[in-house]
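Preliminary data (for renewal application), 2'-deoxycytidine-5'-monophosphate complex.
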Amino acid sequence: MTSTFTIAIDGPAGAGKGTLARRLADHYRLNLLDTGLTYRAVAYALIQYALPLDNVSAAETAARQVDLAKLDRTVLSAHAVGEAASKIAVFPTVRRILVEKQRDFARTPPGAVLDGRDIGTVVCPEADIKLYVTASAEVRARRRLAEIESIGGTANFAEILADIVRRDERDMGRADSPLMPAADAHLLDTSEMAIEAAFLAAMAIVDDVLARRNKA
Ligand code: DC
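Predicted structure:
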């Protein structure tokens, strides 16, 4: 492996990219950054101070204060924080501040797996590997419902689906860095694929790139 190696993973909410990123980072001993947590941290700060989500200068201040070493998934994983994150993620100045931090992280040896919405297109356009992980909105909604039920909760499938569709529209429709596959991304559709199969498919892609490098 070269001194830094970057795997960029993008895709919509609930496609399984987080689990895949973790498995790949463990396997290849790379650092791991869930960039969604950085947008969530900004949203969380605004919520904490009861500030409106369209207060751009407060969002910029919160973005500057984001410490990648202190992102607390337990607090940030709340559904409402994800929704708010998707709203503040439309502001270009906020994105620029967070993207700089994400790039610094990616440049730290031995390299990293980063997952998000714009990693292959904007944050790390020179990534060694780009994966675009997707699944149909129905499958993602079914998975989310199962997840909620597995911890004893209840939810309505139609509402979850509507939520997912709305979030996709916002993340794919924004003007700055919309969610889309990079031209050179490998597409992984996990609609009909267990996460283990997706991991094996991703590993085959990475191993192939590494084998070619070693030969060159
Ligand atoms: O992946 P997630 O659900 O934690 O992301 C929350 C929101 O943050 C997502 O709806 C859009 C935004 N986001 C982004 O705009 N760019 C990223 N690289 C990661 C997340």
